[in-house]
Amino acid sequence: MKHIFTYIVFLLCTCFHLTSQILHVNPKNKKDGLFTSASHFNPIFIKRNKVKRIKVGVSIKEDMRPIRLTELFHEYHFNSDGSLKKQLETYYKLYNEIDTILTEYVYDLKGRVVKEIRKDKKGYFSYNFQYKEGKLIKLTYTKSAAYPTGSNEMIIYSEFFKYDKQEAYFIKYTINDVGKQYKQERFKYNDINALMYYSNQLIVSRLGKEYFYFYNDFGRVFTFSTFKLPEKEKISNVEYGYDNLGNIMSEKIFEKQNLKTSKEFIYNENLLLKAQLSKDEQTGTITIYKLDYEF
Predict the structure, then answer these.
(1) Helices (H) and strands (E) in the chain, counts
(2) Number of CB atoms found within 10 A of residue 33's CB
(3) What is the pTM of this model?
(4) What pLDDT, on the 0 to 100 scale, is given for residue 9?
(5) Do 77 and 87 touch, CB atoms closer than 8 A?
(6) CA-CA distance, 131 to 114, in Å (whole number)?
C-alpha cells in the first residue's frame, strides 16, 4: 500500500508545535469516515498550530490501473479556537454529476453549536439547538430559500429531550413535536469518564443499535463493536492502531468477521497528517485522500 505514496508530493515549510493527534476518535460521533460531515480533526491541535483551512483532494487507484484524480474534495475552515467554522463536501449524484453541500456552524459563548446551516441545490436547511443547564433540550429543523436569518425560516419539525439516570446508565429520551416519547439513548462511562457503552433505540419497535468501546492505557479508543437491536446481532467491529505519540496509524473495519475496509494514515516529519489510504478489501480499490493546509 505504501508504494502508492511515491506518486504523492507534499511540501510544507511551516513550523509546528510537536503536538500529536491531529485526528481523534470521538465515540459520541456515530458517523462513519474521517472525511465526512462528522469532522474528526482535533480542535486542540488545530488551535495550537493556527490551522485556518484544510482541503482534501480525492484520488482513486483501481487494480492494475493508474491513479485517477477525481473532482471530489472536502474542505474545512476553522475558527481561531480550533472549532470547525465551515465545510464543503462534494459527492456524486446520478450520471456522475457532482453536487456540493456547504455547512456552517454557529457557536454560543460556551463553545456549543447553536445552529448548523446546510446549503445544497434545494436551498438552506438548518438545525437549531437549545440548551439548559448544560444539556440539549430542543432541536428545531427549518428550511428557507435564502440564507436563514430567523425570520425567513419555515419550521419543519421540532424535537425535545429529557434526561434520567438508571443505576450506571444515563438516559436521554427524544420527544417529537406531537408530544410522543419515541426514542431512547443510553450512555455508560468508565472510571476515566470515557464513553464505554451507547445505545440508540426506538421505544415501540425496539429497533436500534448499541456500541461497546474499549480503550488502551492512554485513554484512546482501540476498538469498538456495533450490534443490531433488538436481536443483539453483531454488525461490525472497528480496530485502531496508534504510534507512541498517539497518532492514529490504521483503522480496520470488519463486518461479520470479514475485513471490509483498511485505512492507513501517513504523517510528515512534523506529525501533520498528509494523506489517508482507504482500501476496499473486496475490490482492491484504494481511495487516496491528500491534505493541503492553510495557516
Answers:
(1) 1, 18
(2) 15
(3) 0.82
(4) 26
(5) yes
(6) 8
In this structure, what CATH number is given to the domain that contains residue 284?
Answer: 2.40.160
What's the CA gap between 173 and 189, in Å, rounded? Answer: 18
- 3-state helix/strand/coil string of 46-100: HHHCCCCEEEEEEEEECCCCCCEEEEEEEEEEECCCCCEEEEEEEEECHHHCEEE
Counting beta carbons within 10 angstroms of the beta carbon of residue 264, is it exposed (0 to 12), middle (13 to 18) or buried (19 or more)? Answer: buried
pLDDT digits (tens, 9 = 90+) for 230-239: 999 999 999 9
pLDDT in tens, 192-218: 889 999 999 999 999 999 999 999 999
What is the grid cell recorded at 278? 482507504
Residue with cell 507534499: 10
Question: Which H/E stretch holds residue 247?
Answer: none
Is there a contact between 37 and 103 (Cβ–Cβ < 8 Å)? yes
Place of cell 485526528: 23
* Number of domains making up the chain: 1
C-alpha cell at 69: 484524480
Domain limits for position 283 = 2-294
**Secondary structure (3-state) at 6:** helix
- Cis check: omega of the bond before 230, within 30 degrees of 0: yes
Instruction: Tell how far CA 83 is from the center of its chain.
Output: 13
Q: What is the pLDDT of residues 6-17, one digit of tens each?
A: 222 222 222 333
Concatenated DSSP letters of 149-202: -SSSPEEEEEEEEEEEEETTEEEEEEE-TTS-EEEEEEEEE-TTS-EEEEEEEE
Q: Among residues of the chain, what percentage have pLDDT more than 70?
A: 86
